[in-house]
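For the sake of transparency, this paper describes our internal protein records without simplification. An entry from our holdings is shown next, in its original layout:
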Amino acid sequence: MFYSVELLSAHCGKFGIIWLAATHMRKHLSRRELNSVDIVAACNEITSCLSGPVRIRFSLYLASQLIFGLCIIYREKTKAVLRE
């Protein structure tokens, strides 16, 4: 396995909401869940995991899924701002 399962758990993982946004696009994420994600910090975390030590590295597929999830969250956040 190329990643720790705890990183992707929905409740206590760092990337849980991001992973859910990427893999379950039909599921509507709540506004609270969307606002809880700091996009810049998440990008920095993913970058550090990609270039960091071997023990916490991701596969390229998982990294691309997380970046895709961030794009979806960014899209939903901008839609919410434009609606207001």
Notes: The two ends are 43 Å apart (CA to CA). The chain has one domain: 5-83. Helices lie at 5-8, 16-23, 31-35, 39-51, 60-83. The first helix runs from residue 5 to 8.
